[in-house]
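Question (not urgent): is this output format expected?
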Amino acid sequence: MSMDFWLGVIGDVISGVVAAACIAVFAFFVIGRLERRWAAAEALKARDLAAATALYQAHGELFAAWKVWEFHSRGGKHGQPLSETRRSEIVGLAASAEGGCESLLIRIALEHDLDRDEEAALWCLRMAFKELRYAIRADQPLNWWRSDSPGGEQGHREYHAFKATMAAVAAILTKPRNRLPRLIGSSEARESSRRRTESLGRVTGNVPPRPMVRTNSTDARAKDWVLVAEQITRAT
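Got this back:
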């Protein structure tokens, strides 16, 4: 066989080896990047589920504190005298639930890219959690009602708005993410951090993150957070 034949064979072998090496390197980086994105997605999912658990726990703590306060604040044969020490204990229970909610909302705002309705849901929940502490401070029952009984319409609206807002916030944490998280560079990370910090400011601000519309005398009597909660849940 001629030298040209063997040179051709050697060239084909080298070409094959080089091509195989290139494919292996390409596959290594592509698969590695995909695996990192999958790992990031699983980590985000785990954090969201942990946050949902914290949300339910904060709700339970608020509900427990509310029932203790109701036991003392209703008066009549079912009411019980309340010492200042006991009042301080109940305020502590309400404040603990409120603090848990505040911590959770900060976590959600800084770990998610929220739209304005989602920001509004977080804002409403934050305001709703304050209502028990305000009631204790005013030495009044928290007049939230499950049923729309005569004279209790506003209390029913507030209770319903609170539950609807809880559901809206839980949906942020439990809904599937539409795609795998991208592995972003430092400049994109800084921009994402800036946007989320601004979102946090709106969530924890004194005004709702989205416009309110008051359409009638009933709306005029409603608290801001109740009206916003009704509007965002009606739109979904």
